[in-house]
């Protein structure tokens, strides 16, 4: 008898009808003889509605009270799912994060899980019950309710699955797996049977928002197999797990497009030690996430141009900071461009196949797509191109690397 | 520095705007130098909405899951009120029943409070914060969330106030106090400045639904003064406390009308020992609350007629049971009448003024109102009359006992 963890997101438990469907699916798994735990998110737009109410009573809500407020959403879905399970003859019990023994750091709104005390969960499983646990939350050392930040329910599911040594953590969502690229851009995109943690992490960080990066990190640390699949059908989705030998042979496994970035350049920065730390320190202080950074020596040799990308919503603030720091440093000018997109190739085999980058650049240049910035990591190559050329770049590369022909 | 407990019901915290008003009122009390605790109910129709959802997923929901579900309503209002307080510069913290140390019996849906562990509440008060506590709930020995039944938030407020030795427990509602009778029936009805626990208990049991009987019982045990007042204005309401000498002189303090009753008669029951226990035992088994019971010896001497009242919603089921038991006992017939109402005089001074009952009967007979059943207790006299004559009976009695002339 193995332990299987299911996780259902807000859309999958959005209505009473959907909750009943989830109950049937859970019961089916349990009827196959396994012990089942279910992690649930808040129903549909519950969290947004609570936040709307919150904004009406307070302009700057206390993070502690925020957690107290929004954590109710998961509690409602957990109780309803437990009831739905019982009503089809499947013994079940709902547990809050605290009751399930999920202990977090003492940080409101974005704590990490420190420990999972399994006594209660084990007791309920032993009593033959399906444990339905509120995702996204735990309690701190004071017993206060703590939420664990965006994508928290995925992380809850993986952490609980890992603590229990579950066979698999099945994450149900409204897509049916991970594709070689966004099928809306490339209709020939193929669903991957499996993908490694590292590759999934890169794809998730690049905006493939099916799984939160933290949950993948957590799964990777504990070697927990995630099965990402659709709550709308029975078909197999994509397994996220240790890379197989086969996968390591493939240079490129997936292509991601991030259209939500903007480019900033600081020109003619006097080339002195500490310059970069001044610029990026100031941005970090304001919690602005900087992605690609390129420093190019200027023709004169004593000056450098710095270019970097930020998320589009941060652009205005980032430019403001860049102008202030540029003045302090005696740089010539700050330029910015919101009309860019980032195309990335991801593949764990890239590390052993050095020709990938040049093949990428060649394919783009043959399609007359100009590359504005390049950054590479062991398993990723990203290029910044004009916004209008982003989708075309993905299509060109998907074909060039034969991703439409693979049968994985 | 005294401790003052405020309690706000669902209507008083029904919208973001109303929550902000409550925050202002709480802050005002605190600015006067007292320590303040606030007990809140769920916003407006939240509980009903949750129950509606529940009924869609389960026909016979588990009481444990019911508690898990509905307790979220109070948690939402507590968090929002804490935020609203903070946003007007009043330090505050919300606490669930469990966090506030409210320990209940291990019975879902209708537990009694066993104990209040004050550590956390005291710590928060010491830190200068207003503690906003979810009403209606606590935790049991397993840490499961338990609700404490209908009217639970009033009881939570009184119990917490008593445990903290608060100066007063102010219960805010949409009426501005306790009246000599329902002002919709008698426009001359007067607001009482104060009323004793016993009288309030009788009035509450008689359908004056401003305060739940359990909360009054609890206040009476601990001698906690309740100030029942309106959340819509600043005027003084009614104090519920030990009877004063003055009050003991008044025979009649209030008149209640309960239109939600029905009468059942079992005719010609063979007069044998155990008959009554058979009838009322069977009704109790089905959780049907029986109020007035009258057994009259039938003309023949070996048979008796039994009459009793039940709440109207229970009538159908009660008749069914009565018919079954009547058959077993060999009784002649079961009759029922939903068109009745109960008029009651309540007053702690009644015990020392024996003329009250006859004065009541006389006033009713002079107005040609026929009395169908009578029952008396030390501080109450109730008469069942025709439904159509209920309101008139109240008006007649209000005048006969001079309640429109008192100035309390």
Automatic annotation (TrEMBL), chains A, B:
GO cellular component: cytosol
InterPro entries, A to Z: AceGlu_kinase-like_sf, ACT-like_dom_sf, ACT_Aspartokinase, ACT_dom, AKii-LysC-BS, Asp/Glu/Uridylate_kinase, Asp_kin_monofn, Asp_kinase
Domain ACT: 264-348
Alphabetical GO biological process terms: diaminopimelate biosynthetic process; homoserine biosynthetic process; lysine biosynthetic process via diaminopimelate; threonine biosynthetic process
Pathway listed: Amino-acid biosynthesis; L-lysine biosynthesis via DAP pathway; (S)-tetrahydrodipicolinate from L-aspartate: step 1/4; Amino-acid biosynthesis; L-threonine biosynthesis; L-threonine from L-aspartate: step 1/5; Amino-acid biosynthesis; L-methionine biosynthesis via de novo pathway; L-homoserine from L-aspartate: step 1/3
Top-level taxon in the UniProt lineage: Bacteria
Enzyme class: transferase
Keyword annotations: Amino-acid biosynthesis, ATP-binding, Diaminopimelate biosynthesis, Kinase, Lysine biosynthesis, Nucleotide-binding, Transferase
Catalytic activity, reaction form: L-aspartate + ATP = 4-phospho-L-aspartate + ADP
Binding site for substrate: 47, 74
UniProt record similarity statement: Belongs to the aspartokinase family.
Name this protein carries in UniProt: Aspartokinase
High-level lineage: Bacteria, Bacillati, Saganbacteria
């Amino acid at each position: 008898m193995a332990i299987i963890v299911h996780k259902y997101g807000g859309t999958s438990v959005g209505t009473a009808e959907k909750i009943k469907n989830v109950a049937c699916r859970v019961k089916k798994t349990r009827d196959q003889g396994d012990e089942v735990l279910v992690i649930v998110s808040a129903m549909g737009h519950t969290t947004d509605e609570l936040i709307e109410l919150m904004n009406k009573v307070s302009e700057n809500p206390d993070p502690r009270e925020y957690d107290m407020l929004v954590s109710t959403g998961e509690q409602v879905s957990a109780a309803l799912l437990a009831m739905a399970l019982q009503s089809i003859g499947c013994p079940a019990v709902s547990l809050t994060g605290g009751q399930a023994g999920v202990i977090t750091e003492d940080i409101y709104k974005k704590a990490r899980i420190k420990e999972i005390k399994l006594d209660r969960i084990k007791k309920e499983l032993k009593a033959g019950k399906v444990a339905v646990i509120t995702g996204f939350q735990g309690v701190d050392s004071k017993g206060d309710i703590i939420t664990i930040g965006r994508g928290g329910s995925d992380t809850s599911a993986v952490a609980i699955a890992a603590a229990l040594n579950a066979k698999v953590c099945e994450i149900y969502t409204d897509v049916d797996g991970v594709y070689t690229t966004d099928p809306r851009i490339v209709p020939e995109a193929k669903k991957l049977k499996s993908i490694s943690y590292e590759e999934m992490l890169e794809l998730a960080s690049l905006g493939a928002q099916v799984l939160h990066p933290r949950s993948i990190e957590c799964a990777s640390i504990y070697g927990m197999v995630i099965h990402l699949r659709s709550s709308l059908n029975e078909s197999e989705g994509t397994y996220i797990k240790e890379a197989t030998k086969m996968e390591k042979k493939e240079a490129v496994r997936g292509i991601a497009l991030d259209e939500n970035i903007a480019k900033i350049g600081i020109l003619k920065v006097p080339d002195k030690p500490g310059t970069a730390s001044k610029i990026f320190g100031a941005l970090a202080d304001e919690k602005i996430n900087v992605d690609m950074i390129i420093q190019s020596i200027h023709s004169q040799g004593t000056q450098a141009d710095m270019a970097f990308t930020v998320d589009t919503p941060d652009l205005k603030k980032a430019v403001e900071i860049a102008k202030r720091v540029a003045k302090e440093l005696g740089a010539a000018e700050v330029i910015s461009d919101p009309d860019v997109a980032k195309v990335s190739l991801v593949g764990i085999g890239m590390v052993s196949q050095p020709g990938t980058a040049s093949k990428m650049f060649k394919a783009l240049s043959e399609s007359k797509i100009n590359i504005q910035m390049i950054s590479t990591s062991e398993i990723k190559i990203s290029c910044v191109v004009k916004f209008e050329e982003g989708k075309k770049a993905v299509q060109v590369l998907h074909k060039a690397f034969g991703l439409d022909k693979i049968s994985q």
